[in-house]
Specification:
This protein is of the alpha/beta class. 33% of the residues lie in helices and 21% in strands. The structure holds adenosine-5'-triphosphate.
């Protein structure tokens, strides 16, 4: 569950102040955040992930006010409870697909289960790539690995930044459906930011910044 109240943010004293709307999602609810380029979507997502500190207001995830945590506790909280899907893949190039997921579980301080990894790779249809190095993957396979890495540790909150901007309609819907399925399977919240209106019908809630 995630709830925000009165969130504002400013990059620098001379910059404009962003005022973000309050959001509140119950168990397993998802949200699409739309908005034109430059309106502050990524900034909002980074506040929700605890990567930026608000000027005012708070973000509560599973009842914890995340910006009141120390940096060390915040890093640990994020590693264990949040799954981030970025436009650019953050997998470790020198490891293969399977090893990347083992590493993700290690860094989240979760037990390393090869069965859970295999099951997820099966679900995402990249089991045949498990021994491939990251640089040997196609764009679509890389995107699936990105999703696998964001959900393998069963986070309570999945945050995705423009996951579909470079995809055709079929792949766009497939990627969003994968994220929704993973969130539902783990009883997690999913928040996606985009300027891609194609995916709006797949979401329970949406708001425009
Ligand atoms: N580190 C930064 N320092 C100063 N200004 C920044 C910084 N990052 C972003 N901004 C500015 O804040 C505004 C919002 O940026 P943000 O990336 O949140 O927008 P966005 O809605 O995600 O845009 P896009 O859809 O193009 O990715 C932009 O005007 C941007 O130039």
């Amino acid at each position: 569950m995630i709830k925000t109240s009165g969130l504002t943010f400013q990059y620098d004293e001379r910059d404009m102040v962003f005022n973000f709307p309050d959001i509140s999602l119950g168990p397993s609810e998802n949200l699409l955040i739309l908005g034109k380029s430059g309106v502050g979507k990524t900034t909002f997502l980074h506040l929700l992930a605890g990567l930026l500190t608000p000027l005012e207001g708070k973000v509560e995830i599973e009842g914890i006010s995340i910006h009141s945590l120390s940096n060390r506790k915040m890093d640990r909280f994020r590693g264990q409870n949040i799954g981030l899907v970025f436009q650019k893949n953050h997998a470790i190039q020198s490891l293969n697909v399977f090893e990347n997921l083992q590493a993700r579980l290690f860094f989240a301080n979760k037990a390393i289960s090869n069965t859970i990894i295999s099951d997820l790779l099966e679900q995402l249809d990249i089991i045949d790539c498990q021994s491939k190095k990251v640089r040997e993957l196609s764009e679509g396979q890389l995107q699936r690995l990105g999703i696998a890495m964001s959900v393998i540790h069963r986070p309570q909150l999945i945050l995705a930044d423009e996951p579909t901007s470079s995809l055709d309609d079929d792949n766009c819907e497939a990627v969003i459906q994968l994220l929704i399925d993973q969130a539902t399977a783990n009883n997690a919240n999913l928040i996606v930011i985009t300027h891609d209106g194609r995916i709006q019908p797949l979401f329970q809630n949406s708001l425009t910044l």
